[in-house]
Amino acid sequence: MTITFTDRNQLLTHQLKQLCERRLEYALSRFQSMIKSIEFSVSDLNGPRGGIDKACRVRIRHRTGHVIVNHKHEDLAVCISKIAEKASRALSRKRSRSQKFNRTRHTDLIET
């Protein structure tokens, strides 16, 4: 599972990148066969003014499409942890929705 990082404001330190990799790999490990790529981006919305301004975004490309998850928090480590949880729940919902459809073919309706 490869994670691509985008950080325009130089917010991610080496420790935060490692935290992000660990959290995402742990949260998404059960979906490893579905996932093609993960894009993680971080931005600072308010600049140096402070407040709830650290925004994280995860885009997960998988077999049947993609899932995008966003989260904001004032502490970047907390934001990373929360977004990993949200991404896991979103992929779980996506997988359960795709499994609800009965994809069997009804050959008795087709007359030859």
UniProtKB/TrEMBL annotation:
Residues 90-112 are annotated as: Disordered. This is Sigma 54 modulation protein / S30EA ribosomal protein. Coiled coil: none annotated. Keywords: Ribonucleoprotein, Ribosomal protein. Residues 91-104 have a biased composition (Basic residues). InterPro entries: RHF-like (IPR036567), RHF/RaiA (IPR003489). One of its GO terms (cellular component) is ribosome.
